[in-house]
């Protein structure tokens, strides 16, 4: 399609999401949030627990439907599109390394499904010889030796390996938008670093537009060209380019204490420096 | 102690019982393939089968009684079974009724529908043409012919199912049961997959029902009772005997399980334990106990291991 440079890949306007509406457990997870993501942006999103980061990603992906507002994706109003329809434009990696792959199926079968993301399925053979060559080529990039284990069940692999697979699968067909939902949070620090590096490489080489939610301020600062901080369902900080490069962990901590009162920071064990 | 009475007089009987068990194991193997599709592939516990088995028998039987072609009647049985499965799946996906409950609802409705189709609770097909008459080219006796035809049908269905599960749609179906979140994020509508899978499953079950009716010479509204438990027992039995490492192996396993299950039943029926002699009506109780044992073996094994450690 005729996507031009500078076009908004993602356009969110006045988005509101309320859970358990009308009950005593009513929670407003997202409060009339508006934001747009330009083509080629790599946005990192931080915020404390309950800030609405994951909810926002799930709204974009279609896992939840919003109570108010609209979402436009690549020029289409997708506000009421079901999850599977939006998948044509979106690649996703989840926090849980087990969520992105099918454990009981082989690596090549998982890849075959990912290679047809958004194209629909037919009664043609699931994994062809040509597919296999393509998958091997892609898997070689990981350097994990998985290109020799195409027929192994994914359930045999470690969390880190599965998360790397999910990342490759999400980008096997170029997504217009890559959504990363704390995808390194469940991994050990060394593996997390490797997966993060792979993420950075893939996004840079394929020139992808990506949104990455993270709990780790250092990761949020190191990666991407734009940083968004969320609090209570709103965006409270949105910096890009040179201003983002100049940002430090101290600046972010300062922002948090400014908005929330210093004592809350100590409570928030999820803020990693 | 087990006492085997009348051992000599049962010699000829048990040969027929043996052949009969093979015959049943094969034809109900189609039903077991269906149960494999829902319970194992889709992870969708489906009790519709207790209704779709007699549905297949009723449709096939009623059409034959009305003078229609027995082969055509089997095709109609397959379609009817698929429709019944689709209803269950629609209740579960579109109306969000718990899958187990949705299938019980359809099963209950099918009881009335089956009587409507037959016009009464049972039909006899004696002296009516069946597929076995049409296929008896060599003048074989029934007890040889029927198992042979069942074997061919079962092998064809197994191979077709294996092939299907290796297509793009098949992979999506497997993934829907394994990780629905994953396959949705690859752009597949999981509701559609569930409807397709449950419909296919019940189509196989109804085919089994139609074939049973034609081979036994009657259809009865009560013939489906306990089908699901027998199906589950066969699946679990086969998995533990043959394994389930691949789709091809898994479908072979459930078919083997079906035959072994019927053979075990035949053996159980031919023995007398003390004064107690088992009758066919005891089968559901035995099967239920068998399924409970099979399902709890992994748990018990785990506990034993835990205690030792």
From TrEMBL, chain A:
Single GO cellular component term: plasma membrane
Transmembrane segments: none
Assigned keywords, A-Z: ATP-binding, Cell membrane, Membrane, Nucleotide-binding, Transport
Residue intervals of the ABC transporter domain: 10-257
One annotated GO molecular function: ATP binding
Membrane topology: Peripheral membrane protein
Compartments (UniProt record): Cell membrane
Cited InterPro entries: AAA+_ATPase, ABC_transporter-like_ATP-bd, ABC_transporter_ATP-bind, P-loop_NTPase
PANTHER family hit by this protein: NITRATE ABC TRANSPORTER ATP-BINDING PROTEIN, TAURINE IMPORT ATP-BINDING PROTEIN-RELATED
The protein's name in its UniProt record: Putative ABC transport system ATP-binding protein
From TrEMBL, chain B:
Location within or outside the cell: Cell membrane
InterPro entries to which the protein is assigned, alphabetical: ABC_transp_permease
Species of origin: Desulfacinum infernum DSM 9756
CC annotations in GO: plasma membrane
Protein name per the record: Putative ABC transport system permease protein
Keyword Nuclease: no
An example molecular function term from Gene Ontology annotations: transmembrane transporter activity
UniProt topology in membrane: Multi-pass membrane protein
Keyword Transmembrane found: yes
TM regions (residue ranges): 15-39, 74-93, 100-119, 139-161, 192-212, 218-238, 250-271, 283-300
Regions annotated as coiled coil: none
Pfam families per record: BPD_transp_2
Keywords: Cell membrane, Membrane, Transmembrane, Transmembrane helix
Major subcellular location class: membrane
């Amino acid at each position: 399609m005729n996507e031009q440079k500078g076009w908004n890949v993602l356009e969110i306007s006045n988005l509101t999401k309320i859970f358990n509406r009308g009950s005593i457990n009513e929670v407003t997870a997202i409060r009339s949030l508006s934001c747009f993501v330009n083509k080629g942006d790599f946005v990192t999103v931080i915020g404390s627990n309950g800030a609405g980061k994951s909810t926002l990603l799930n709204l974009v992906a279609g896992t939840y439907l919003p109570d108010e507002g609209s979402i436009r994706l690549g020029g289409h109003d997708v506000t009421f599109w079901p999850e599977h329809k939006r998948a044509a434009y979106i690649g996703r990696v989840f926090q849980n390394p087990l969520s992105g792959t099918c454990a009981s199926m082989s690596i090549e079968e998982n890849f075959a499904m990912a290679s047809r993301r958004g194209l629909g399925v037919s009664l043609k053979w699931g994994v062809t010889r040509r597919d296999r060559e393509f998958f091997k080529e892609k898997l070689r990039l990981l350097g994990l030796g998985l290109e020799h284990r195409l027929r192994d069940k994914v359930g045999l692999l470690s969390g880190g390996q599965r998360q790397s697979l999910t990342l490759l699968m999400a980008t096997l067909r170029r997504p217009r938008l890559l959504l990363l939902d704390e995808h390194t949070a469940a991994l050990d620090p060394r593996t997390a670093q490797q997966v993060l590096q792979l993420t950075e490489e893939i996004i840079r080489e394929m020139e992808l537009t990506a949104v990455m939610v993270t709990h780790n301020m250092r990761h949020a600062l190191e990666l991407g060209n734009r940083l968004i901080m969320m609090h209570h369902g709103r965006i409270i900080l949105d910096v890009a380019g040179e201003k983002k490069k100049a940002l430090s962990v101290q600046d972010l901590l300062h922002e948090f204490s400014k908005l929330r009162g210093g004592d809350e920071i100590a409570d928030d064990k999820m803020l990693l420096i | 102690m087990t006492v085997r009475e009348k051992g000599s007089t049962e010699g000829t009987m048990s040969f027929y019982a043996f052949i009969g068990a093979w015959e049943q194991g094969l034809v109900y193997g189609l039903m077991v393939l269906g149960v494999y599709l829902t319970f194992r592939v889709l992870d969708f516990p489906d009790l519709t089968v207790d209704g779709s088995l007699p549905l297949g028998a009723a449709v096939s039987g009623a059409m034959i009684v009305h003078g229609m072609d027995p082969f055509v009647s089997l095709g109609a049985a397959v379609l009817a079974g698929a429709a019944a499965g689709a209803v269950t799946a629609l209740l579960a996906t579109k109306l969000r009724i718990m899958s187990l409950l949705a299938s019980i609802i359809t099963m209950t409705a099918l009881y009335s529908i089956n009587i409507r189709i037959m016009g009464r609770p049972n039909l006899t097909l004696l002296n009516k043409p069946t597929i076995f008459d049409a296929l008896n080219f060599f003048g074989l006796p029934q007890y040889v012919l029927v198992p042979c035809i069942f074997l061919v049908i079962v092998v064809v269905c197994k191979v077709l199912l294996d092939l299907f599960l290796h297509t793009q749609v098949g992979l999506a179906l497997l993934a829907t049961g394994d990780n629905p979140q994953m396959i949705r994020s690859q752009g597949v509508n999981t509701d559609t997959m569930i409807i397709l899978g449950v419909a296919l499953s019940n189509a196989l079950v109804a085919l089994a029902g139609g074939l049973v009716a034609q081979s036994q010479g009657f259809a009865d509204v009560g013939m489906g009772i306990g089908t699901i438990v027998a199906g589950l027992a066969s699946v679990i039995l086969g998995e533990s005997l043959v394994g389930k490492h691949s789709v091809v192996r898994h479908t072979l396993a459930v078919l083997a399980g079906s035959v072994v299950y019927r053979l075990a039943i035949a053996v159980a029926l031919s023995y007398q334990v003390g004064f107690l002699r088992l009758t066919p009506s005891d089968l559901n109780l035995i099967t239920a106990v068998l399924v409970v044992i099979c399902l709890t073996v992994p748990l018990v094994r785990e506990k034993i291991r835990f205690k030792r450690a």
